[in-house]
Amino acid sequence: MKKLILLTGILALLSSCGPTASGIAATVMAPPSLLLLAPSLIKDSIKEKINGETDYIDSSIGVFEYKNAKISQQNGIVIINGTLIYKSDPENTTQNVTLTIPCYDSEHNEIGNAVAKTRISKKGDPTPFRATIKSDKVRFCALEYGTITGE
Q1: What is the pLDDT of residues 28-52, one digit of tens each?
Q2: Global pTM exceeds 0.85
Q3: DSSP 3-state assignment of 44?
């Protein structure tokens, strides 16, 4: 509880410091559905499920829903698992897609993208994805800023 009060106080202080600090505060205060924090920064009690929210990515090849995104880290590789659901027309579309998720360090600098390749076959069918990035500097990844392209 003390940490929450301290964090709230720091964010309130930063929010009045100008556009750069308030931008950082807004990023830190984003709802859990928007950011996936690297497990090394998360207490064990909330490590199991970081993001269970549903959200959407609107891409040039259609709208995709993502669900149940979870992040883990093994041997310097950050892994984001979840489910994609194709929501646009046509009903039957079989194509390979690439999901690119930007990832950031502790100073909010983008350090690369976690990338997943998967095959979408039909509107409404859940398709699992596994995006990876090799880096021990990743502190969070922003799935809501992800892009999806078709091949």
Answers
A1: 333 344 455 555 443 332 233 345 5
A2: no
A3: helix
Tokens of 131: 């995006």
Q: Which tokens sit at 141?
A: 């990844």
User: How far is the C-alpha of 80 from the C-alpha of 135, rounded, in Å?
Assistant: 13
Which residue, chain included where needed, has tokens 């390979």?
Answer: 96
- Roughly how many angstroms between the first and final C-alpha of the chain, as a whole number? 48
- In 3-state terms, the chain is what percent helix, strand and coil (to 5)? 25, 45, 30
Q: Is 22 helix (H, G, I), strand (E, B) or coil?
A: helix
Count of alpha carbons within 13 Å of 17, Cβ hemisphere only?
Answer: 14
Q: Report how far apart, in Å, the C-alpha atoms of 150 and of each of 25, 26, 41, 70 are.
A: 34, 32, 33, 23
